[in-house]
Amino acid sequence: MKVQVVIVGAGACGLVAALAARDAGAQVLVLERDASPSGSTSLSSGFIPAAYTRFQRAAGVTDSPEQMAADVQHKNHALADPVMVDAICRASGPTIEWLADRHGIAFELVQGFLYPGHSALRMHCVAEKTGAALEAALLRAAGEIDILCSASATQVTGRTIEFQRPDGSCEEVEYENLVLACSGFGGNKEMVRQYLPEIADALYFGHVGNQGDAIRWGTALGAGVRDMTGYQGHGSVAKPHGILITWALMMEGGVQVNANGERFSNEHLGYSEQCLPVIKQPGGEAWCVYDERLHRLGMTFPDYREADAAGAVKRSFSIGKLAQTMAEVAGYAEGKAKDPFGRDFTTKPKLVPPYYAVKVTGALFHTQGGLVIDTRARVLDKAGRPIPRLFAGGGAACGVSGPHVWGYLSGNGLLTAVTLGRIAGTEAAR
Ligand SMILES: Cc1cc2nc3c(=O)[nH]c(=O)nc-3n(C[C@H](O)[C@H](O)[C@H](O)COP(=O)(O)OP(=O)(O)OC[C@H]3O[C@@H](n4cnc5c(N)ncnc54)[C@H](O)[C@@H]3O)c2cc1C
Q1: Which of 93, 333, 395, 421 is the most exposed place for a label (fewest CB within 10 A)?
Q2: Residue nearest to atom 5 of ligand 1 (CA)
């Protein structure tokens, strides 16, 4: 069988690439290892940052691709490739509008709070505010496209791709162009230990099927890799429930304490880097503490509601010296003292009892390093030359977070999945 554009992976990147390639008139085949496509995309909150969209303008938000690129680069200390960051931020707004207008994905602007490091409201989501609903919307849009499930790609050459069916039988497809959209290596313990030893013993909260295959095949074909030590972590996964507790609670005034009731960090630096201080606390855990106002904010998020229903949100608890810590935090909010960790508490309302608390741990969500690509999503060899017929995006490609956990600006994951997916699909259809 010969196919014009073969795409490996049916997460956000692969499905968006498939829509773009089909829009450009190409014959498309998507290979997906799972029986039902989900990926890290379905596990995510589904918030996609994009600049200068009509959704922002309708809400009176001022933003631009340049401002967004500056935020991305500020967060990673300018360690990502500025050419890629500019191209991705420029493509972000048009990509969201194209998905909405041409493919019927009803995006909304997330309002009410800013994620750390963003200077404008620019997160876009579907009404349900979940990655599962985003994935479902993409699958609906991709209705007519050939998506072969339970087809695990096993080998790639410069012309062919082999995949295996659950009964062990193998088939081969010849491709004109190949898009690697099978994400990073978070599910591959060995690679995580090699590249990300600091988080290797923590919970992995992403899709287990992301085994680093794109990196393995790409490098075998001569591709370069970059920022392999970069990743998205998170400091707030309910323990033992395994439910993401929205960081909006921290951004709007909540704090994290350890089992002794003591704060240990500036929670406003970002949720990604917060995974490390949390796993270093006694028992590798911490408590998110907040009040009724923030509990109500939390209840606007489906995963928080799930956590509440599962009993993760405590109204009655005793956590070491919490009373003393909360008195200190009140002093910071009133401007009577400065937070030793450098957080400014004066911009948000003071927390008032009764308090709520959720026990959480830190986790690895998603890797950020990967195949080096150019602004056309073409995979580059070690000398920077495009490898013929090979494209990549999303978690398979090097992202825009640089080589450190603290370089991840909220939304960098779906940003590169969706925008590079569209670029890769369009280019592969040429
Ligand atoms: C809990 C959580 C919350 C998150 N929230 C957000 C958020 O709100 N905003 C944001 O921007 N990012 C978020 N992220 C990150 C985001 O989910 C990822 O960056 C994004 O989904 C990556 O998309 P992708 O298409 O590259 O990969 P995926 O969605 O993981 O898709 C890859 C697909 O490839 C398939 N595959 C893998 N190997 C093979 C193979 N050999 N053959 C065939 N198929 C294969 C997999 O089965 C999978 O379906 C979150 C991540 C997690 C874990």
Answers
A1: 333
A2: 44
Q: At what angle do helices 131-141 and 12-23 cross, to 10 degrees?
A: 20
Q: CA–CA separation, 101 vs 19, rounded Å?
A: 13
Residue nearest to atom 31 of ligand 1 (CA): 11
CA nearest neighbour of 400 among 74, 116, 128? 74
What's the CA gap between 10 and 153, in Å, rounded?
Answer: 12
Q: Work out the percent of the chain whose per-residue pLDDT is above 90.
A: 99
Rounded Cα gap, residues 373 and 396, in angstroms: 10
Question: Could you tell me if the CB of 45 is within 6 A of ligand 1?
Answer: yes
Residue 48 structure tokens? 């996609």
Nearest atom in ligand 1 to the alpha carbon of residue 13 is: 25
Distance of alpha carbon 429 from its chain centroid, rounded? 26
Ligand 1 centroid, distance to 20 Cα (angstroms): 18
Beta bridge partners of 255: 289
DSSP state, residue 20? H
Q: Which residue, among 223, 233, 261, has the nearest Cα to 379 in the 3D structure?
A: 223
Residue 338: its pLDDT value, please?
97
Q: How far is the CA of 372 from the centre of ligand 1 (A)?
A: 18
DSSP letter for each residue of 200-240: TTSEE-S-TT--SHHHHHHHHTTB-EE-TT-EEEEEEEETT
pLDDT over 90 (residue 115): no
Q: Is 218 in contact with 277 (CB distance < 8 Å)?
A: no
| 282-323 tens-digit pLDDT | 999 999 999 999 999 999 999 999 999 999 999 999 999 999
* CA 267 / ligand 1 centre spacing (Å): 25
Residue nearest to atom 27 of ligand 1 (CA): 183
Q: Is the CB of 116 under 6 A from ligand 1?
A: no
Q: Which of 236, 167, 175, 224 is nearest to 383 (CA)?
A: 224
In sequence order, the 6+-apart residues with CB closer than 8 A to the CB of 237 are 203, 205, 243, 244, 245, 360, 361, 362, 363
CA distances from 193 to 186, 229, 367, 375 (A): 10, 10, 12, 30
